Amino acid sequence: MKRPTILVLGAGYGGLTTVVNLQKMVSADEAEIILINKNDYHYETTWLHEVGAGTISPDKARYPISSVINHNVRFVQATVENLDVNTKKVETSAGEFTYDYLVIGLGFEGETFGIKGLKEYALSLTNINTARQVREHIEYQFASWSLDEVKDDSKLTIIVGGAGFTGIEFLGELGNRIPELCKEFDIPQEKVRVLCVEAAPMVLPGFDPQLVEYAKTQLSKKGIEFSIGTPLVEATPEGVKIKKGEDEFEFVKAGTVVWAAGVRGNSLIETSGIESNRARIAVRKDMRAPGFDDVFVVGDCAFLLNEEAGRPYPPTAQIAMQQAVNIAKNIKHLMKGEDTETFVYDDKGAVCSLGHDDAIGNAMGRKFTGKTASALKKVVDDRALFLVGGVGLTLKKGKFKFL
Ligand code: FAD
């Protein structure tokens, strides 16, 4: 009898964790496991704010997929171009694939909410190359300011759209990086302006208000300005337009605009034949897509309701990795003709960094700030490496400067 094919799309937290669990549970005789990913490396999406600010190198945040998969897995480096669950066909730049079990883990895309000019003129922290672009763009602006005879100080203004998790973590890194950049490019630091623009009336929604206050104070001390409750309504090549009141607008000239507000699932989902909302699929309790018993969805492409709280779980690496373990087990169950298991989320808390030496967090029923929270953040980052690649990968890529 032909062994079943398990096709996993995307080697992010969700896809790669599914595969490293499957390879331990399923032998080569039992099934063929195929992993398809755009690049031959995995990148730590949760470290992209550091790559974007230039506080770590892009290479620090990635590792070869071959270093964590074994001979049970066939890795194909290819871009998924189209998927259709009705015909069970996945078209990629390396040809067409079919499957007995499919896992969709294609991650997120930035959501621009139709705001004029954002797609064209704002940068983003979506993958390792967009993050690298942010870093190099800022450095270019700073370098050219230094060389210009007639100086345009707006080159040294950085606008960050969004005061959610990604925006705040990026601002924290910028707070550390700006003094270094000023030194590198002979720029008086008072010329630099970093402004965070947020439409919602608060920073870091969902976080404890006391911790949020701490974060805002610490970032303000690093020179970060906030414009809260003021939607960014347009981006142009020169800067951004901000709505300050009913009929009141302000235009801020800026050399760099980074959009860090809002994510949606991968747009390939929208033509896959599965119902979705903002390219996210409302999965069943065992992480399968509605109406398709052979299709699982993991990570940011999945939408899962927290029934207790009456709102969806936020898209995080933490939940993606837990879902992946459940999916690997459920594929094994289906192969054996057994019932699937319900996914139960074990919320271990959240830690938001404010640079390499400061953070806020809640975990184990306690609140943390400062160096303790920052050390905790590094433990969280190292744990993600450990869960995928064990001690070897953790020693190679981990963060060990705790204080
Ligand atoms: P990803 O990890 O993004 O992986 C998707 C994979 O699919 C990538 O390898 C990509 O290359 C591949 N891919 C995409 N399209 C294609 C295609 N067409 N063909 C082939 N391959 C493709 N979460 C936390 O829990 N804690 C944090 O502290 C945290 N901090 C964050 C900081 C930042 C700056 C950002 C941006 C996010 C942060 N998150 C955090 C959220 C977290 O990173 C995401 O929820 C998580 O990455 C989702 O995992 P995923 O597997 O769904 O997608």
UniProtKB/TrEMBL annotation:
<keyword id="KW-0274">FAD</keyword>
<dbReference type="GO" id="GO:0019646">
    <property type="term" value="P:aerobic electron transport chain"/>
</dbReference>
<dbReference type="InterPro" id="IPR023753">
    <property type="entry name" value="FAD/NAD-binding_dom"/>
</dbReference>
<keyword id="KW-0285">Flavoprotein</keyword>
<comment type="similarity">
    <text>Belongs to the NADH dehydrogenase family.</text>
</comment>
<dbReference type="Pfam" id="PF07992">
    <property type="entry name" value="Pyr_redox_2"/>
</dbReference>
<protein>
    <submittedName>
        <fullName>NADH dehydrogenase</fullName>
    </submittedName>
</protein>
<dbReference type="InterPro" id="IPR051169">
    <property type="entry name" value="NADH-Q_oxidoreductase"/>
</dbReference>
<dbReference type="GO" id="GO:0003955">
    <property type="term" value="F:NAD(P)H dehydrogenase (quinone) activity"/>
</dbReference>
<dbReference type="InterPro" id="IPR036188">
    <property type="entry name" value="FAD/NAD-bd_sf"/>
</dbReference>
<feature type="domain" description="FAD/NAD(P)-binding">
    <location>
        <begin position="5"/>
        <end position="324"/>
    </location>
</feature>
<keyword id="KW-0560">Oxidoreductase</keyword>
